C-alpha cells in the first residue's frame, strides 16, 4: 500500500479498511483498476460498498478528464521490458573471462513501433480493439523471446502468467434464464436474437427443454452451430442402474415421481421396450451407432452446422427436447449441455452467454434441481414467468431470494431482472369487467375504443400494475430487511411480448411497447461494459508483467 491509497481511504471515511487494502497489497495503480468483484472482496457489506463505488467512479472520471491513461502504459512498459530482455539475453562474461554464446532471437525480437494510446473522454469499440491488439502483439513477441532464453524458474513463471492472461480475457458473463416450463424462456431468447426458430420452443404442450442450453455469438463464421456435449458412458450406465433400482418390483419404497422420471428417460432413448431389458442389453454398442461421439474414449463433442436457425433447431430438437409426439429417437437423456452459436450477434453476445435451463418447479426433480447448481455462477439472473402468475407463484420468488443471497454475499450475481412474459395474452372484456376495474374511468374510456386500441390499453394497464406490484413485493420482502440496498441498481422488471415483437401482420403493440428492444439494450450495455473491463484488465495485466520483467532485471540480471 502507498500513501495515495491510505490518504483516499482516510479522506472517504474508510479508515477501517486500511489494513484490508494493505493485506491485499493495493497500491495506486491497482486501486484505480478495482472492479465490482474486487469491491465485494475488500468491502463485504453492501452499504459501505455502494458508497465506496460512487467515490471510486468519481475519481476515475477526474483522472480521465486529466488525460490519465493506463492503456498508454503498455507502450512505455513494453519498451522498458524489451530493453530488459535484450540486456538479459545479450552476451555476458563468464567467471573465467570467456564470452558466453549469445542466444539467437527470432526475427520478431525487435518490436514494431507501437502506437501510443491515450484514453479518450468517451472510449469507442474501435479504440478498445486497437488497444487490445497492441497488448496482444506485445504479449506474443515477449513470449517468443522468452522461448529463446535458458529454462529457468523465473522464465517459466513469466510464461505461465502470460498464458493465463490470454485465457482469462476469454471469460464471459453468464446470464442465467430461469423459470417454469412453459413460461416462455426459449421464445424470449429467440425474440432477443431476432431468430423466431432458433431455440425449439413449446409449440407442443407436451414438449419441454430437457437439457441445459448455452447461447453465445459465433465469432468465426456466418453459420448457425451447435456443440453437443454428452455425459460419459460410465455416467449413463450408473444412471440406468439407478433407474432400474427405482422401477424394480423388489423396491418396497417406490416413489411414483422417481418411477415416472426413470421410465421417461429409458423410453425416450430405447423406446417402450427398453424398460424391461437388462443393463447388459441396454449398454450394447448397437444402441449408440448414430452418436459415435458418445462412445469415444475422449467423449468428443458432436458438432452440427447449418445455414439457418430453423434448420439447426430441427436438427438439435432430439438432443434438447422431451416430446412424446416426436417420431425420431430422443438423445437428450445422454446430453450434458448444448452450446448454440449464433452469427451476427457480436454487439449482443460477444462477451455474454445466455444460459437456458430446464424448467424449475417441474415434476422432474433432476431438472428442478439443476437451476440451483448453476445459480451461483451467474453474473446476472433473469427470472421469467407468465404475467398472469408473476406475483402469485412460489418458484420465481424462491429463485429471486436465492439470487439475492448470492448478491449480498459478494458472489457472482450482480443484478436480478424479473421478466413477465405473454403480456399479449389478455381478454379485454374479462379484464375490464373484473370487480377492480368495472365502471372505472379506464373501463369507460376503453369501451369507446376500437378492438385493437382497447386490447392495447388493457395490456399497458396490466403491465404497469404488474411492475408496481412486483416492485412493492420486492421492497417489502427484500429491501426493508436490507435498508441500505438501492433497489433500482439491482432489481428491474420488464413486461414483454415475444409474440407481438415478431408479429409483422397487424400487431397490437409497437416494438418498444413489447419491451424486447429494452431487454436487448440491457444485454448490449452489459456486453460493452465487459468489453471495456476485459480490455482494461488485460492491458493492466500486460503492464504488470512487463514491469515485473524490468524490475527483476534491474535487481538481479541473473534472474532472467
Automatic annotation (TrEMBL):
InterPro entries: Dynamin_N (IPR045063), Nuclear_GTPase_SLIP-GC (IPR053082), P-loop_NTPase (IPR027417), SAM/pointed_sf (IPR013761). Residues 88-129 are annotated as: Disordered. Residues 175-394 form the Dynamin N-terminal domain. Gene3D superfamilies: P-loop containing nucleotide triphosphate hydrolases, Transcription Factor, Ets-1. It holds the Pfam family Dynamin_N. The lineage of its organism: Eukaryota, Metazoa, Chordata, Craniata, Vertebrata. This is Dynamin N-terminal domain-containing protein. One of its GO terms (molecular function) is GTPase activity.
Amino acid at each position: 500500500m502507498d500513501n495515495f491509497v491510505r490518504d483516499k481511504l482516510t479522506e472517504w471515511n474508510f479508515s477501517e479498511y486500511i489494513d484490508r487494502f494493505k493485506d491485499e497489497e493495493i497500491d495506486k495503480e491497482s486501486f484505480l483498476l478495482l472492479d465490482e468483484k474486487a469491491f465485494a472482496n475488500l468491502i463485504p457489506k453492501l452499504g459501505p460498498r455502494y458508497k465506496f463505488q460512487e467515490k471510486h467512479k468519481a475519481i476515475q472520471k477526474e483522472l480521465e478528464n486529466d488525460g490519465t491513461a493506463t492503456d498508454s502504459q503498455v507502450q512505455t512498459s513494453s519498451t522498458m521490458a524489451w530493453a530488459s530482455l535484450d540486456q538479459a539475453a545479450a552476451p555476458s562474461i563468464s567467471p573465467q573471462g570467456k564470452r558466453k554464446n549469445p542466444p539467437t532471437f527470432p526475427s520478431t525480437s525487435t518490436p514494431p513501433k507501437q502506437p501510443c494510446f491515450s484514453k479518450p473522454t468517451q472510449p469507442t469499440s474501435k479504440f478498445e480493439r486497437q488497444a487490445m491488439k497492441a497488448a496482444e502483439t506485445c504479449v506474443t513477441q515477449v513470449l517468443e523471446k522468452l522461448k529463446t532464453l535458458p529454462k529457468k524458474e523465473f522464465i517459466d513463471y513469466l510464461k505461465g502468467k502470460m498464458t493465463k492472461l490470454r485465457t482469462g480475457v476469454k471469460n464471459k458473463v453468464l446470464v442465467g434464464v430461469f423459470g417454469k416450463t412453459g413460461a416462455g424462456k426459449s421464445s424470449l431468447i429467440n425474440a432477443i436474437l431476432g431468430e423466431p426458430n432458433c431455440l425449439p420452443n413449446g409449440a407442443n404442450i407436451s414438449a419441454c427443454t430437457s437439457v441445459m442450453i448455452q447461447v453465445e455469438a459465433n465469432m468465426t463464421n456466418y453459420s448457425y452451430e451447435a456443440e453437443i456435449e454428452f455425459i460419459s458412458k460410465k455416467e449413463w450406465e450408473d444412471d440406468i442402474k439407478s433407474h432400474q433400482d427405482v422401477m424394480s418390483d423388489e423396491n418396497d419404497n417406490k416413489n411414483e415421481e422417481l418411477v415416472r422420471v426413470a421410465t421417461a428417460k429409458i423410453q425416450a432413448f430405447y423406446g417402450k421396450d427398453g424398460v424391461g431389458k437388462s443393463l447388459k442389453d441396454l449398454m450394447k454398442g448397437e444402441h449408440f451407432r448414430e452418436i459415435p461421439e458418445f462412445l469415444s474414449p475422449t467423449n468428443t463433442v458432436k458438432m452440427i452446422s447449418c445455414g439457418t436457425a430453423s434448420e439447426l433447431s430441427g436438427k438439435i430438437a432430439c438432443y434438447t427436447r422431451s416430446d412424446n409426439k416426436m417420431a425420431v429417437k430422443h438423445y437428450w437423456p445422454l446430453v450434458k449441455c448444448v452450446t448454440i452459436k449464433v452469427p451476427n450477434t457480436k454487439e449482443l453476445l460477444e462477451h455474454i452467454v445466455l444460459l437456458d435451463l430446464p424448467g424449475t418447479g417441474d415434476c422432474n426433480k433432476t431438472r428442478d434441481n439443476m437451476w440451483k447448481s448453476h445459480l451461483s455462477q451467474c453474473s446476472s439472473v433473469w427470472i421469467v414467468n407468465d404475467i398472469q402468475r408473476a406475483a402469485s407463484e412460489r418458484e420465481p420468488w424462491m429463485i429471486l431470494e436465492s439470487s439475492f443471497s448470492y448478491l449480498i454475499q459478494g458472489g457472482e450475481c450482480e443484478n436480478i431482472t424479473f421478466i413477465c412474459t405473454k403480456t399479449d395474452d389478455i381478454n379485454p372484456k374479462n379484464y375490464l369487467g373484473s370487480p377492480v376495474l368495472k365502471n372505472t374511468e379506464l373501463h369507460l374510456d376503453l369501451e369507446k375504443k376500437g378492438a385493437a386500441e382497447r386490447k392495447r390499453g388493457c395490456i399497458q394497464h396490466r403491465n404497469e400494475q404488474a411492475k408496481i406490484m412486483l416492485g412493492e413485493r420486492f421492497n417489502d420482502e427484500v429491501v426493508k430487511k436490507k435498508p441500505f440496498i438501492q433497489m433500482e441498481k439491482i432489481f428491474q422488471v420488464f413486461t414483454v411480448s415475444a409474440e407481438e415483437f415478431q408479429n409483422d401482420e397487424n400487431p397490437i403493440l409497437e416494438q418498444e411497447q413489447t419491451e424486447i428492444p429494452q431487454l436487448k439494450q440491457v444485454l448490449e450495455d452489459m456486453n460493452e461494459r465487459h468489453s471495456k473491463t476485459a480490455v482494461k484488465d488485460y492491458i493492466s495485466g500486460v503492464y504488470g508483467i512487463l514491469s515485473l520483467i524490468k524490475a527483476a532485471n534491474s535487481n538481479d540480471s541473473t534472474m532472467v
